[in-house]
Design brief:
Chain lengths: ~350, ~325, ~350
């Protein structure tokens, strides 16, 4: 099975913040091609260790991609068996209207986010987007059956089959951030053919969408020398600021800024140039909204980096990425890792 | 239970000024504990050595309040909030400082009600000069907006600081019962929750629990035209699913639900959008801590006075003890 | 002149290289060991094997600044803020950009061309550009790289009566106090810590406090002061010339009362004027340090600075000297065992 196929499977699995188990099981399976040393920590982070060559102590490099997706949670079973929800992660409620969802009750239930037809809406209503609190999920079954199958607190995720678009592009839900799990898999594949002294800690992290929580405890517990978050960024769309618009198919974005250790940035950039990986520069001015935000200040501080591919329509059910970017990002990370030496790691604290 | 809640709700203990209350709280558990201390941030912590995993019960002791920050030349005090306090609700209310001084809160003229901020409020403590005011309420003195406590109806209490003195009573009682069962258990009466769960974070770091259960109030939604919340007074304690700080791990949630089922106890499920509790700070301590939450519904949570039901509180004790005992 | 050297050095959050070099040179020879951590915080050890409480003195060396993020076809540079910059203070100010400290100016549409309603609204960040004199995009990118950072081009000068103006008294004033304090010896284990990235979330202090595990920590900070015309007493924050300020509550800290009372006692005993910081907004590194590990006792000592975060900030030199005296007095009393936690 190719990693592209694995990614398609991962995208169709369901796993919001705090209930990533189904995704975690599939990720472990995928990591097992590269190592037997795989475990899950108290928060649910999946940690796979791929040892480097040579005598210990070896440099330790953590790669993280978060496996949670934005999700909803049932807050109320209303009259008629309609469900009210709140969010775990940031939705644009406008994208939810008419969306098919899966309600994870006693059994998975297919539901539809209801909308009022245009025939019944007033001109005023049509001008306004409904807030999340006013949306409801219709399970198309009697209230008693809903109450028997669903409990307040049950999770709800988007339902969307992964789709192939032109030019090797792929679309569906949860590319944020399972595209980056594919990046890590591609990296481990390339790394198999390279000599590397560093131990690689491949982490599929949890609860990123509610505030980089998995990365907070993983960074603390694993305390690597270098931690690189792999997370998606914004592809260009009309009207976006030029420094927040990356081209799809033009290679991964390498982040630069206060959240990023300057030597890790330079190492990534140099690896890209040496191995002819196309890349784009992502400028950031503060703590990024990624796992790198937590890694940098875990314990006494960890040298952090951030790379990722650009996707369109982030946090919708039709996120779109170019698979070439995913493969190239994996290749970039592999060459970077292969180039890291113990001497370089020792110099990370030298300013 | 009721007596303890009423006694403890009588203390003035805004965030950062929990000292007096902590003495009373720790006094209730001291005899059953092997070790009792108040730490740097003001947490009251009691530990009992015993069998089994280390279960830590966390209930915040503090409440939101106000702090005197300036005295003008006529002896009026200016205030800032401690935690989240709605400024417009303070006008005409009584402020009571930790040193017992009381005053009345007024508002500058010409300010529209909806525009009222703390910069427009002042406290009149009866001082006739700047010097008198300064000596009676030194800058930095904290206080609360006073609201009386009362028993209403058959099972209910109304008043200030029921959030979370009722939770402290649950935690203390559960600690005593678990200690008597010979379990390894700690109780944290956490400080500085209302300003962002500051105490709970450092307490969790010290104790590194195997399981932590956070005990706190959660908003009821059973009032006229209330914001949408599925919790009702008198329908039992709530198992926390998620709030603004934490998603409770499924194994902990399931364990709490199963514990309630064994007891034949009716429970409710708490999904509290944007809700703030100690759960997140505890969960993210060190390499991650297994955290659960047991709450009791409270009406007007976040207001100056809350309404709670003692049956929910009693149910919370049973649930916490059963869940901790069987973890 | 120490304050001049420190305030004129460049060092926006995450890009503290120049100021770190200046500080390293200032403290070398006065401390036992100087090193940096992985975020770039400069840590100075002084007598750390001595008995007594381990004291961490903190001053952040970063300042607010700008990052160049895009060059337009006409050669004008787009930028984004590093830390909290009020866009309203940027118009018609010069800046210095990148390691070469190249000059640039932030202009505005001439008032003649503005519509009356435009004049009433503050200029949003998106409508501001830095002009380095480039003819076009290529010309601009030959001189400045994307990701280069910029700071206000402000000279340190003494003005008025016993005052000085400069950029970045927040917190180079604190850095200067800490530098002077480190030049004397104390009978206790002392860490002087010049942190990075305070302005974007106290990030240097979080990592440094975890590493050093101090018993007592004090943040030395340039803080908000607005004792100007029309400001009511409770809206001033602090008052220039009334001495260093103690924090009662800010956005991230409730004062540790025992240590606050100790510091007040020290100030009174040594005849050093002091005041309270009378505003809730804002914060400093102690907000991170006190929550480290199991919790850390201590507090903050702030120097009033008018127009904090703006290009020209004003400070009283007497407040500055009194802050040095106060920090030294606190250390002296600590080594005498004057604080029992």
């Amino acid at each position: 099975m190719t990693h592209r196929e694995t990614l398609r499977e991962l995208m169709e699995l369901h796993g919001g913040p705090g209930f990533e188990e189904a995704v975690a099981a599939r990720v472990k399976d995928a990591f097992a091609r590269y190592t037997d040393d795989i475990r899950t920590d108290a928060m649910g982070n999946v940690i796979a260790r791929v040892p480097g060559d040579g005598p210990a102590p070896r440099p330790r490099i953590l790669l993280s991609a978060h496996m949670d997706e934005i999700a909803l949670v049932v807050t109320e079973i209303a009259d008629g068996g309609f469900l009210r929800v709140w969010q775990a992660g940031g939705f644009d409620p406008r994208t939810l209207v008419g969306q098919e969802v899966v309600v994870h009750g006693r059994q998975p239930l297919l539901g539809v986010v209801g909308s009022k037809p245009p025939h019944l809406t007033t001109p005023e209503e049509r001008k306004q987007a409904a807030p999340l609190e006013d949306l409801f999920i219709d399970l198309a079954m009697p209230e008693e059956r809903v109450r028997a199958l669903v409990t307040v607190g049950d999770r709800v995720t988007l339902r969307r089959e992964a789709m192939d678009l032109l030019n090797g592009r792929i679309a569906g839900k949860a590319l944020d951030d399972r595209a980056s799990i594919a990046v890590i898999l591609e990296c481990l594949e390339v790394l198999r053919g390279l000599r590397h002294t560093a131990d690689v800690l491949a982490v599929a992290s949890v609860q990123e969408e509610v505030g980089v929580r998995g990365a907070t405890t993983a960074g603390y517990a694993l305390e690597p020398d270098i931690a690189i978050a792999v997370d998606v960024t914004f592809a260009d769309m009309p009207g976006q600021a030029p420094d927040e618009s990356f081209k799809m198919g033009k290679g991964p974005a390498i982040a630069f800024g206060p959240n990023i250790h300057p030597k890790v940035f330079r190492g990534l950039r140099d690896a890209a140039e040496r191995h002819r990986v196309p890349y784009q520069l992502e400028l950031t001015q503060g703590p990024t909204g990624t796992d790198a935000r937590a890694f940098q200040i875990a314990r006494a501080g960890i040298a952090s980096g951030l790379v990722g591919v650009a996707i369109r329509y982030m946090h919708c059910s039709v996120e779109t990425a170019a698979y070439d970017d995913i493969a190239e990002c994996g290749r970039l990370l592999a060459h970077y890792i292969a180039g890291v030496t113990a001497e370089e790691v020792a110099r990370l604290t030298c300013y | 239970m009721k007596e303890r809640i009423l006694e403890w709700a009588g203390y003035v203990a805004p965030s950062g000024s929990e000292g007096g209350l902590q003495e009373a709280l720790l006094g209730a558990v001291r005899e059953a504990a092997d070790e009792v201390r108040v730490d740097v941030l003001g947490n009251g912590i009691a530990t009992k050595r015993g069998e089994g995993p280390h279960v830590v019960l966390v209930a915040h002791a503090d409440e939101p309040g106000v702090m005197a920050i300036h005295v003008d030349e006529r002896g009026f005090l200016r205030l800032i909030s401690i935690g989240d306090v709605p400024a417009h609700e303070l006008v005409g209310r009584q402020v009571r400082f930790t040193n017992g001084v009381t005053g009345i809160i007024g508002v500058e003229g010409k300010v529209k009600r909806e525009d009222i901020g703390f910069e427009h409020l002042y406290a009149d403590i009866g001082a006739e000069s700047e010097e008198e005011a300064r000596s009676r309420v030194p800058l930095g003195t904290a206080g609360v907006v006073w609201e009386p406590l009362s028993e209403i109806g058959t099972h209910r209490l109304a008043g200030r600081a029921l959030d979370n003195r009722a939770g402290c009573a649950v935690a203390a009682e559960a600690f005593l019962q678990l200690a008597a069962l010979g379990r390894r258990v700690s109780v944290v009466f956490s400080a500085q929750q209302a300003v962002g769960a500051r105490g709970a974070g450092t307490a969790a770091f010290q104790l590194n629990p195997d399981l932590a259960i956070v005990i706190d109030a959660a908003p009821a939604g059973d009032m006229p035209e209330a914001p949408r919340m599925a919790l009702s007074l008198g329908k039992g304690p709530c198992v926390k699913i998620m709030d603004g700080t934490a998603v409770v791990p499924l194994d902990v949630k399931d364990h709490l639900v199963e514990s309630a089922r064994r007891l034949g106890l009716a429970i409710q499920y708490e999904v509290w959008p944007r809700g703030l509790s100690d759960a997140g700070a505890v969960q993210l301590s060190q390499g991650g801590v297994k955290v659960g939450g047991v709450s009791y519904p409270a009406r007007r949570l976040g207001g100056l006075a809350q309404v709670i039901d003692l049956r929910d509180v009693a149910g919370a004790v049973r649930l916490v003890v059963e869940a901790a005992r069987s973890w | 002149m120490l304050l001049k050297r420190l305030t004129e050095a460049m060092g926006p959050s995450g890009f503290e290289d120049e100021i770190r070099g200046v500080l390293r040179a200032e403290v070398e020879g006065h401390v036992d060991r100087v090193y940096t951590d992985v975020l770039g915080t400069l840590i100075c050890e002084k007598g750390i094997d001595r008995p007594g409480p381990r004291v961490m003195l903190d001053a952040h060396m970063d300042e607010v600044g700008l990052m160049i993020v895009h060059a337009e076809d006409n050669g004008l540079l787009r930028f984004r803020p590093l830390g909290g910059v009020d866009p309203r203070v940027l118009v018609s100010k010069p800046v210095r950009i990148g390691p070469e400290k190249r000059f640039g100016v932030i202009g505005a549409k001439p008032i003649h061309l503005q519509k009356p309603e435009e004049r009433r609204k503050p200029l949003p960040l998106e409508s501001l550009y830095i002009d380095i004199g480039a003819r076009d995009k290529d010309d601009a990118l030959a001189a400045v790289r994307l990701g280069d950072v910029a700071v206000f081009a402000t000279r340190y000068e003494e003005i008025g009566e016993g005052c000085a103006k400069a950029k970045s008294f927040d917190d180079r004033a604190g850095c200067a106090v800490l530098t002077e304090v480190l030049r004397r010896d104390y009978e206790l284990p002392l860490y002087g810590v010049f942190t990075v990235q305070e302005e974007i979330g106290l990030r240097g202090a979080i990592a440094a406090a975890y590493r050093l595990q101090p018993d007592i920590a004090i943040a030395i900070e340039g803080t908000v002061c607005f004792d100007v015309v029309d400001a009511p007493g409770h809206g001033q924050g602090t008052v220039l010339g009334r001495g260093p300020a103690f924090t009662l509550q800010d956005g991230r800290t409730l004062a540790d009362r025992r240590f606050l009372e100790f510091m007040i006692h020290v100030a009174e005993k040594h005849g050093i004027p002091y005041q309270f910081r009378r505003v809730k907004g804002g914060s400093n590194d102690f907000g991170a340090i006190h929550r480290s590990r199991a919790g850390v006792t201590g507090g903050s000592i702030s120097i009033p600075v008018r127009y904090i975060h703006a290009p020209a900030q004003v400070m009283s030199l007497e407040d500055y000297r009194n802050t040095v005296r106060l920090v030294q007095a606190v250390l002296t009393e600590l080594q005498e065992g004057g604080f029992r936690g």
